[in-house]
Amino acid sequence: MAENILSTPISANALSVSEVNATVKACIDSPIFKGLEVFGEVSGFKFSGPHAYFTLKDKNSQLSCVLFYGARSYNPKDGESVIVKGSLDYYVKGGRLSLQVSSIQPVGQGLLFLEFERLRKQLEAEGLFAAEHKKPIPQFASKVLVVTSKTGAVIRDIVTTIRRKNPVIDIVVRDVRVQGEGAAHDISGVLKRVDALGYDVIIIARGGGSLEDLAPFYDEELVRTVYAMNTPVVSAVGHETDFSLCDFVADARAATPTAAGELVAYDYYAMQQQVREDMDRLSRAARRNFERASMRAQHAFGNLRRIATSFYADRQHRVVIALGNAKNAIIRKFDRADAATEKAIDALDKLSPLKILRRGYFRLQAGDRTLSSVRALKVGDSITATGGDGKVTANVSKIEIFNEEK
């Protein structure tokens, strides 16, 4: 092979690699390739020393770019659309074409990020995120409102988590759009309407998504509405790594919908068990105190008996009877206390809504209303009956009102 190459005559028109690259370099240095504006999508953005390197691409092609330290005012993320300004450069020794970027301007999501960051700084300067304005989340909430979309998995996660800890908390759901134009205004309107309805805490929730998907929760109107709420608000927006402006202004942030359920629900079963343990402990303590008092009484009785035998033999019988009566009275008192303790425990257990439901009762609801009267219904209404072992949904086909006794 080497012999064949050496024996082949070199054409007078043949150029060396250096000559070709020098020619390309001369063309690239033409003013036409200076001050270019190029639109594309960022890929492979990385740092090497103080400078950044990335690829600008579109559907059919790509271009290597270098962003020197002195020109870097914004670090784009992979996948962002940007407009870069700069000049083409050709590296003769390596034979590589690149665009030396003098400025970079985000388009689309990048612009959203910058706008959200500007708004965040403005609202923070106004004090909307200050800790002293945040309200405590109630330790024993009885009415919880969840503002979210009923079609997503978010509400299922929240309800499942709350019910795992507590069967008695009243959970109400307000169905709203959590994505798209106008969603922030809709959520803000719902919050204003429910603020005076007596809920203990409100959860604003949605699942994860892109910055555009979460845009309603960066909306200034919604943020100011949350700030003005009298009802404590928990924000459960996006994934654990997402931080919306609602998270900053809310009274508490939950990293996930499940964490929001954990935050607002007290553990009914643990509390019930704690009450039992406290009652048992008090009963044992009372018995121990009685036993010690009884021992002291017996000791005093022995001393008194010896004194009475020596000095008051004629009164010994009456003293013995009196002490016996006193002892019996104390025993009866503690027996009554034990009976009252057991009765209180039984009464607490009977108050469990689940036990009532298991005895054949049902809880009727129409939408988010709990029904206590047939008069609140009309034919065609959809009702849900929750029993001890499940729930039934039905439509009202007939209503009969009983005459009240006069």
Q: Which bin fits the share of residues in helices?
A: 40-55%
Our Rg estimate from Cα atoms comes to 39 Å
Q: What is the terminal separation in angstroms?
A: 120 Å
Task: Trace the largest sheet across and list its strands.
Answer: 1-2-3-5-4
Structural domain count: 4
Question: What does the main sheet amount to?
Answer: 5 strands, mixed, barrel
How large a portion of the residues is in β-strands, by DSSP E? 15-25%
Task: Kindly state the number of beta strands.
Answer: 14
Summarize it:
With 406 residues, the protein is an alpha/beta fold. It has helices at 2-7, 17-28, 109-126, 153-165, 183-194, 220-228, 245-249, 257-264, 268-311, 316-350, 353-358; strands at 36-48, 51-57, 62-67, 81-91, 96-107, 143-148, 170-175, 201-206, 233-237, 252-253, 363-366, 369-370, 382-386, 391-395.
What does this structure look like?
The protein is of the alpha/beta class and 406 residues long. The protein has 4 domains: 13-107, OB fold (Dihydrolipoamide Acetyltransferase, E2P) (Beta Barrel), CATH 2.40.50.140; 129-265, Rossmann fold (3-Layer(aba) Sandwich), CATH 3.40.50.261; 269-351; 359-395, no CATH class. Helices cover 41% and strands 22% of the residues. The chain has helices at 2-7, 17-28, 109-126, 153-165, 183-194, 220-228, 245-249, 257-264, 268-311, 316-350, 353-358; strands at residues 36-48, 51-57, 62-67, 81-91, 96-107, 143-148, 170-175, 201-206, 233-237, 252-253, 363-366, 369-370, 382-386, 391-395. The protein has a 5-stranded mixed barrel with strand order 1-2-3-5-4. A 5-stranded parallel beta sheet has the order 7-6-8-9-10, with helices on both faces. Helix 4 (153-165) runs parallel beside helix 8 (257-264). The protein is elongated. The N and C termini lie far apart (120 Å). The model has no long low-confidence stretch (mean pLDDT 84).
